[in-house]
Amino acid sequence: MSYSGSYTVKALFAAVSLLALAACSSEEASDKADDAQRIASETIIIDTHIDVPYRLNHEWEDVSAATEKGDFDYPRAVAGGLNAPFMSVYTPAQYDGTPKAKSHAEEMIAIVEKMAADAPEKFRVATSVADVEKAFTDGIIALPMGMENGSPVSGDLANLDYFYERGIRYITLAHSKSNSISDSSYDVTRQWNGLSDFGHEAVKRMNELGILVDISHVSDDAFWQVMEIAAVPPIASHSSARHFTPGFERNMSDEMIRALAAKGGVIMINYGSSFITEEANKYGPARDEAYLKYIAENGLTDSTDLKEQFEKGYMEDNPFPYATLDDVLDHIDHVVKLTGIDYVGLGSDYDGVGDSLPVGLKDVSSYPNLIEGLMKRGYSEEDIKKILSGNFLRVWRTAEAYAASH
Q: What is the pTM of this model?
């Protein structure tokens, strides 16, 4: 009788303790979520790669209001605390070497300018750190611009000066194909074995002007040549760690990440699932291989309609393996372990990677999720703010100071 009573008391005590722990855990989680929202609201958040202009060029939407499509609009940006999304002035590789390259870039810039002109109380074009800080103080979203693909430069250094005046503050030297500046990580043709002679001159002129050199998309050889000649820390505006995607040259190896940090630069983590996990990275090639096997075995002729039909069925049988918030955090952790806290930031590629964004990071309202995840992994508030903008702003200020002295 006494033993049974003692056991019951112990069981009750254990149950009460578990309930108390659960309550504390729930309260702690709530506190972290509240802190994440606070940090997002009081900190400049810079995302160095958002493909809104190309999306709007394809199909115009008023992103100053809520939109049904895409990953970015004003209400979602405000909810996420996003203050300075770099608008990607993207030029497809098919325009390389043609007058259309420059005119297309001008069209993309005009879209950003229209966004700001149509809703000046919400958006403002920004061309300097001071502009970003002023817009933040004024409660307006700054729209700095980066050029994705250097093909609009068209082999003429004078065009670097021109696009600087138009507001471009970084240039991704190449995109999916080798161009007049650099070889591409995606292009098996390595016509320059890195940078062209013009590319060497372009890097130097970009430094003099205050245009950041972006090594996302370039070949490994081009990366190492940039490291040798750059007088200002370069950036990787939307790349991730190759450690998690072996053989994927578009991401950066550990050696490259260390070298970029040694130069003072930053790697801005790309959210696309194929950049984040090996499983997602191999999904596309496996699907394409299955398609080729399918048409060969059935004596069919390749066509766009046939491929779309096959891919739809393939995805039903083999769902896409989306990365998660934790997978993205793993990339940040990896860079920090390699280099320290001062050399990593965010370059999501929102509106640029289609329906491949990680669970928990599906649009620009989700930065508080990332912040909360960083807090749970033990990052201090000071370190989180470096990731959100401090590290990139340091590099941008360095570029501005160098340009002012040259």
A: 0.92
